[in-house]
Each structure stands twice: as structure tokens, then as C-alpha cells.
Specification:
The complex is a heterodimer of chains A (407) and B (315).
Chain A lengths: L1 E5 L1 H11 L4 E4 L6 H12 L6 E4 L3 H13 L5 E4 L1 H6 L1 H10 L4 E6 L13 H4 L7 E4 L3 H15 L8 E6 L8 E5 L2 H7 L17 E2 L6 H33 L6 E4 L6 E6 L2 H14 L4 E6 L1 E3 L3 H8 L4 E6 L9 H10 L8 E6 L9 H16 L8 E2 L3 H14 L2
Parallel strand pairs in A: 2-3, 4-5, 5-7, 6-7, 11-12, 11-14, 14-15, 15-16
Antiparallel strand pairs in A: 1-8, 6-13, 10-12
Chain B lengths: L29 H13 L3 E5 L18 E4 L5 H17 L10 E7 H7 L1 H9 L4 E7 L40 H6 L5 E5 L4 H11 L5 E7 L3 H5 L5 H10 L6 E4 L2 E4 L8 H5 L15 H22 L4
Parallel strand pairs in B: 1-2, 1-3, 3-4, 4-6, 5-6
Antiparallel strand pairs in B: 5-7, 7-8
Helix pairs in contact in B: 1-6, 2-4, 3-4
The chains are: A alpha/beta (407), B alpha/beta (315).
């Protein structure tokens, strides 16, 4: 085991290297590019025994990743934002092939306006594609989630591809101390991929991705996919247990921060959860009983774990770093949905939208969120609209750029 | 496998079948005949990457007419799919994860809608990367599987579902057919050729020759289409022959970009070819459209002129 200062991108690349992947199809896009630069260098320096190829688009890249996985190679690939959307058709196609692989999405907000910093409209656009989604907060988690991703994806109860999501800029280019596990420990955790049946071989012809006309058969296979994705919750928990036994780090489907006696809870995901935890820490010092629930496994949606954590709380704010125009926050709706049938559900569920395009969420805003839930709770009123985080200072900055544009 | 060393006549063609009867394709599909012939040279150790088109229906769950492997991808990415399979087989064999006897020829099978339009980028990428694969485009000169709409492969003067003749457009399709062969040739792949199901010896010889090259081996076959072109299914072979003999479908090959015609036709008037097909009816009825017919003929003459000078063949 070595401890090094690594960026989020380098950590993800190390995950692929340690997983001893066979094949890496690629296409550059900011902020993901550092991942494929690292991997291509390792392959060219013979430090990694894999084939690297630069494709002509993300659509082609995701296709090649899927067909190589269907041929029995262990495949890694990475993209961001526009790239994920450009290849979206193939995300659905590949999960239908039921092939294992890991794709890292380095989150970046979607055009237009074209921009660089992160929010989660890219990754959540893929939420119904049949891919398992693990969202990470720090560099260590990025490396570890790639390793766990292969183990989950290659489990025959799942056989679905995995996306590991890490935030662009905040995580992709931030250096943190990361433990790089020993290769032999990784081998123990993640043995070579068993490629026995169903792959393209001269001696065993197979027909895959065949057309299926009529809704009956189509429904059957879609339900199969859903049930396998549901299986991934218990598979994830088993994999996390094994991971802890070997590497000592624990990754449940959700992460609890100051949750034991918390009356008010913030639910959020990814790198901004670090900001949320810092805010909770400061509020705790001021005597507020607040906690934070970080969502890590987003697909399958770990509803039971979320319900367990949120029952009997006075109020909960779900911070969505995404926006579904005309509806609100995507994860808010999912969290609401799973709580409905519990009598002990929180009185207040507040939807908050913030961090779009990488916009900061300040301590004052976190405190405002908690104050708002408290007010609703005390006045026995319920929120009817999402809060769109935007401070007076934000308005000043915006007015300034609009003035410069001369509008 | 084919045992013939060279193909001189139809007796040299492998009798073994690799595409079995009873597929859901239309009766008289010229593209299917070309595929059947190509398979006789390729043999059984093949995986086909299919991009969305008529032939997607060949493998309709739970049936397949093939004795070898098949994967349907999506319309834009047949060659990208081929890249993943080729690379995976190479690295798995190199690492000793699978024995080399399990190796396969990787074959992309797409219609012209994919080859000429939505899949062109993916094809260009694969040729540029010198991917070792076969590419077969069955060209029926329109988006056939959706009911025959105009594609960039549709010839000037032909009628399609989205280019119906009208007073303003008496020629129906106003654009010229895109020259995909020349676009491919600009990449200088090791081997590329046009073929026709009505010239099985020429087709077999070309697939045989292609097998000697590593890298992209690209084919466009004319695919006479009874339903889209508007003729009786039994006439596919006759129409394919006429396409060649009128000079509208040149049989040629290019090795590393060097072009050669493999057959010099008899240059029958193109009218003989056009008049047999419903998609050209508007050029003859209710009044004859001499302007468009002549323009089509001139296009053919202009195409051949430089080559006929070179080969000193007289018309």
C-alpha cells in the first residue's frame, strides 16, 4: 500500500489500472481527459497490459466498450457531460446486452450555456438507462468505487454496467492523499473476470442484441433488467463488506454524518457533501441538532436505507445539484416517493436546488436551508416550491456580467 | 471455408450455406443474395456487427439464420462495435485468456442509410485506425427498412417516399447519389470493392482477394429491392445485371487507393434499366421526361469517359 497525493482523475485511473483492465476505448472531454492521459501513458510505458484506442466520438467509444465487454474483455472507459449525452443511446443498448464494465463520468453541467464546472444533470440523465450508479465524494472513494464497480458489475446476479460519478474540477483536479492498494490485495478482492459463456468465440456462436418484436418479450427482458438492478443493492452491500475486510474502508449505500440524534437532515451527494458536512459541523457547534445523509448508490435507489435514516426526523432538505425545469429537483422526487407510505415520515421535506454549473453553496446558505425547514416545522406549514439558491451577491455578479455584455 | 484458389466460374463457388433459408427479409432481396455469396468465402468463423437497417430483422429473437455469431448495435456505430470486438479478441488472445483458435473475422453489415450517412463518421474512424475488419454495405439506394425514403445514396431521378415527383420536382430526387466509394478511397484502405449479386464470380474473387489483406476490407454491393424499387421479386437478378451492363453500377476495386475496374460493361442505354422499375415510372408516364433521362445517361457517360480512354475500350 502506498499513500500519494492524487487528483480525482488520477485516482479513478488508478482504479482501472489496479483492476487489471484489458481494454480502454477513449475520447477526450474536459474535465475527464486526465484519466485517459494517465492510462494511455501507463499502457505506452508497459506499466499496464491493456489496449488503448482513441475513438471518433463518445458514441463510438461507448459502443466499443460494450462490444469488447460482450467479447469478454474487462473494459474501462470515461467521459463527461456532453459526451455522456452524445453516447446516451448506447448506454441503454449496452445495459440491454447485460455486459459488465465500468465507466467513470466526471460530472460537468450541460450546454447551453456551454460551461465547465459540475452539476448532475449529465449523470442523472442516465438514471433510467439500466446502469448502476455510484456517486463519490473524495479521491479515495473514486479509486475504491472503480474497484467495487467491477465486482458488482461482474456479479451474475447483476450483469449490468456501472457508472462511477465524480465531480469535475472540485474533485477531478483536487489533490488529496489517497491510499493506493497493493495489486495482490486487489487480485484477492477482484479475481480475473470469468468469461465462460455467451461471448463471441469461434467454437460457440451466439446471437446477441437480436430484434424482439412485440411488447411481451420486450417487457420480460426489461423486467429482468429491473430485477437484476434491484439485486445490485444486496450485491453492493456484500461487496462493500468484502472491501472493508480487505482494505479497511467502509462504503454503505448511504453515508451518515452526525445523524444519530439529528432532528433536521440535509440529503445530498458527491463532492459538495464535503461542504455540507463542514456546514453541519459548524451548526452542531452552535448547538443545532442537524445531520447529513449522503447518497452514494443512486441506481439502484436504496429506498429502504433512505427510509430508515429519515423516519422520525422533524424536517429534511434534499439538495439537488441538478434541475428538471418545470418540475424541480430530480432526487427530491425520488426521496419523497420512497417515504410516502411511512407514518413516521418527516413533517417537512424541502426541495433545494443549488450548485448548478459548480456554483458554490455557502455556510450562510446551508444555515438558511436549516432555518427554513425549522420555520416550516414550527409554523406547521409545508413548502410548496423548491428553493432556488441564489444570493444577493450572486445577483450582483450576474448584473455585472450582464452590464458588461451591454444588455 | 471456400476451397477455390481462384474464381473463374460459378462452379468454383462454395456449395456450403452459412445463411440458412427462412429469414424475414423480403422475397427477392438482392442484398441477401450478396450476403449469402460473401459468407461462402468468409466461412463460419465470423461475427457480424449489424447497424440498424433491413438486415436487423435477420436475427429476430428467438431465431437466427446464421451458423455464426451476430450482434446488433445501433445505426451509427457498426464499425465502432467492430473495433471493440476486434480489440477484445486481440488482447484476450495476446494475454492467453482465450486460445487463438477462438479467433473470428469481424464483419460490419449495414445498409446504405447507415453507411452513407449516420454511420459514416464511425466508418471513417475505423478505416483511419486501420481496423482489421470487413465492411459490407448493402445499397438499395434509400432508407429501405422505414419504407423507402430518400438517403444520400438515392440516385438523381428516382422516386422515394420523401421525394415524390411533383410539378416543381418532375425528376423526384434532385440530388446526385453520394460517391461513398470515393470517400472511402480517400482513406486509402488496403482493399475495397463494389460488387453485385448478379456477378457472383466477381464477388467471390473480390472477397477472396480481400482476405489476403490486414486492415479495412470494404464492400458496397448493389441491393436490388423489389418493394422499394417497384418490380416483381423474380426480376432482381435481371435488374442487377442491367445496372452493371448500363454502366450505372460499375464493378471496381481499389487496393491501397489504386483504382481498377474489374468489368467493362456493354453500355446498354440506361433507359433499359430505368424502365423496369416503378421508382422511375414518372420519367416515362404520363409524359416522357427526356431531360432527366438524358441527364442520368450523361452522368454515366461522364463517369466512364476517363477510364475508357485509359483502357482504350470503345463504346
Amino acid at each position: 500500500m502506498v499513500r500519494e497525493m492524487l487528483t480525482g482523475n488520477a485516482s479513478a485511473a488508478w482504479g482501472a489500472r489496479l483492476a487489471d483492465v484489458d481494454y480502454v476505448p477513449s475520447f477526450p472531454i474536459t474535465p475527464q481527459t486526465e484519466i485517459i492521459e494517465n492510462i494511455s501513458s501507463w499502457i505506452r510505458d508497459r506499466e499496464m497490459n491493456a489496449k488503448f484506442v482513441t475513438m471518433d466520438s463518445e458514441h463510438s467509444m461507448i459502443t466499443a466498450a460494450g462490444t469488447a465487454a460482450a467479447t469478454g474483455a474487462r473494459v474501462f472507459t470515461a467521459t463527461s457531460s456532453q459526451g455522456l449525452l452524445y453516447g446516451m443511446e448506447m448506454l441503454y443498448t449496452i445495459s440491454g446486452w447485460r455486459v459488465p464494465l465500468v465507466l467513470v463520468n466526471v460530472a460537468r453541467a450541460i450546454s447551453s450555456p456551454i460551461t465547465l464546472e459540475p452539476d448532475h444533470n449529465d449523470i442523472l440523465a442516465a438514471r433510467d438507462s439500466g446502469w448502476i450508479q455510484i456517486h463519490v465524494e473524495n479521491c479515495q472513494e473514486a479509486l475504491d468505487a472503480v474497484l467495487m464497480g467491477y465486482k458488482i458489475s461482474e456479479d451474475e446476479r447483476v450483469f449490468l454496467p456501472v457508472i462511477v460519478n465524480l465531480d469535475g474540477f472540485y474533485l477531478s483536479f483536487t489533490r488529496e492523499p489517497v491510499e493506493i492498494p497493493d495489486q495482490k490485495d486487489v487480485k484477492k478482492f477482484l479475481p480475473p473476470f470469468n468469461r465462460e459463456n455467451g461471448y463471441f468465440r469461434a467454437s460457440k456462436p451466439v446471437s446477441r442484441g437480436a430484434a424482439l418484436l412485440g411488447g411481451t418479450g420486450y417487457s420480460f427482458f426489461k423486467y429482468q433488467m429491473h430485477l437484476s438492478a434491484c439485486n445490485a443493492i444486496s450485491v453492493y452491500k456484500g461487496v462493500a463488506k468484502e472491501f472493508k475486510a480487505i482494505f479497511g474502508r467502509e462504503y454503505d449505500t448511504v453515508e451518515r454524518y452526525e445523524m444519530d440524534d439529528a432532528e433536521y437532515v440535509i440529503v445530498m451527494s458527491n463532492s459538495f457533501a464535503t461542504k455540507g458536512k463542514a456546514a453541519v459541523h459548524i451548526m452542531r457547534e452552535k448547538g443545532h441538532k442537524v445531520g447529513l445523509l449522503k447518497l452514494r448508490l443512486i441506481r439502484p435507489f436504496p429506498a429502504d436505507d433512505i427510509i430508515n435514516e429519515l423516519l422520525n426526523r422533524k424536517g429534511v432538505a434534499i439538495i439537488d445539484q441538478n434541475i428538471a425545469p418545470g418540475s424541480g429537483g430530480i432526487l427530491y422526487n425520488e426521496v419523497c416517493g420512497c417515504l410516502y407510505h411511512s407514518k413516521e415520515r418527516p413533517n417537512i421535506l424541502l426541495s433545494v436546488i443549488g450548485g448548478l454549473g459548480g456554483k458554490d453553496i455557502s455556510q450562510a446558505e446551508f444555515e438558511h436551508i436549516i432555518d427554513t425547514i425549522k420555520k416550516y416545522h414550527n409554523k406547521k406549514k409545508v413548502p410548496i416550491k423548491p428553493i432556488l439558491l441564489f444570493t444577493e451577491e450572486d445577483m450582483k455578479v450576474t448584473n455585472n456580467i450582464i452590464d458588461i455584455a451591454g444588455i | 471455408m471456400d476451397r477455390a484458389k481462384i474464381y473463374k466460374n460459378v462452379k468454383d463457388i462454395n456449395e456450403e450455406e452459412f445463411v440458412l433459408p427462412g429469414t424475414p427479409l423480403c422475397a427477392g432481396c438482392g442484398g441477401l443474395l450478396a450476403l449469402r455469396l460473401a459468407y461462402k468465402v468468409l466461412g463460419q468463423k465470423v461475427v457480424i456487427l449489424n447497424a440498424a437497417g433491413c438486415f436487423t430483422l435477420l436475427s429476430t429473437y428467438p431465431y437466427t439464420p446464421f451458423r455464426s455469431s451476430w450482434l446488433y448495435t445501433a445505426m451509427a456505430c457498426g464499425p465502432a462495435g467492430a473495433q471493440g470486438i476486434r480489440d477484445a479478441l486481440d488482447i484476450l488472445i495476446e494475454k492467453g485468456s482465450i486460445p487463438k483458435e477462438e479467433n473470428l473475422k469481424v464483419v460490419v453489415l449495414t445498409g446504405d442509410g447507415s453507411a452513407y450517412d449516420i454511420g459514416l463518421q464511425s466508418t471513417s474512424g475505423a478505416i483511419h485506425r486501420n481496423l482489421d475488419f470487413y465492411y459490407i454495405c448493402y445499397d438499395n439506394e434509400a432508407f429501405g427498412n422505414t419504407g423507402f425514403q430518400m438517403a444520400s445514396s438515392s440516385p438523381y431521378g428516382s422516386r422515394t417516399g420523401t421525394t415524390q415527383p411533383s410539378d416543381a420536382y418532375p425528376m423526384a430526387t434532385e440530388q446526385q447519389k453520394k460517391d461513398l466509394f470515393e470517400i472511402w478511397r480517400a482513406h486509402k484502405p488496403p482493399y475495397m470493392a463494389t460488387v453485385s449479386p448478379a456477378h457472383p464470380v466477381d464477388l467471390s474473387a473480390k472477397f477472396k482477394k480481400a482476405s489476403e489483406y490486414k486492415g479495412p476490407k470494404l464492400f458496397i454491393t448493389l441491393a436490388p429491392c423489389p418493394t422499394g424499387w417497384g418490380y416483381g421479386a423474380s426480376r432482381s437478378n435481371r435488374i442487377a445485371k442491367l445496372a452493371v451492363e448500363c454502366g450505372i453500377w460499375p464493378l471496381k476495386e481499389a487496393i491501397e487507393g489504386k483504382l481498377k475496374h474489374t468489368y467493362i460493361p456493354k453500355f446498354k442505354p440506361v433507359e433499359e434499366y430505368l424502365s423496369l422499375q416503378g421508382r422511375y415510372d414518372h420519367l416515362f408516364k404520363p409524359v416522357r421526361n427526356d431531360f432527366t433521362i438524358k441527364k442520368i445517361q450523361k452522368g454515366i457517360d461522364r463517369y466512364w469517359a476517363p477510364f475508357l480512354k485509359l483502357t482504350s475500350c470503345k463504346r
